[in-house]
Amino acid sequence: MIRKLNIGNVVLDNPLILAPMAGVTDLPFRLLCKEQGAGLVCMEMVSAKALTMGDKKSPLLMTGGGGSAPFGIQLFGHEPDVMAEAAAMIAGGKYHVPFDFLDINMGCPAPKITGPGAGSSISALMRAARSSASPGSGVTCSCGRNTLEPLAVVDNTLSPQANASSTALEQAS
After folding, report:
1. Which CATH number, 3.30.460.10, 3.30.470.20, 3.20.20.70, 1.10.10.10, labels domain 46-171?
2. For residue 154, what pLDDT is reported?
């Protein structure tokens, strides 16, 4: 029997979660995954800097939300004040996207994330974004194949310190 899963105040029908994947988790794919039973769908990550600078393409990544599924928006960035501003813009309804939680990317190994140093001030980023967004927020930490060291950081330091309502660990390949 598949059990329900609670992430903060969001109740999922099941623990089958579509992870945010750049270039993959667009609206048609999210809707297909929900149709096939996903309990939660997430959009591909969106740049906090791009949102705050008024980029026209970035908000399109959020278009349509998750259909009837609980929907997560994932932000990435490396400047706490910019992350807070982007989270406030989303939570304030600027983009008219219904969402259930805001997820802060804290360790994706993709060059566009690691290049500018995103996620390097993890606790400050989480506190800044969390203080600006009303829905629950989550932390996602991606680990490389042989890099399990961040598990301790995520499990013992980040979530309690930053008051995250959920913590997810994804294995990067």
Report:
1. 3.20.20.70
2. 40
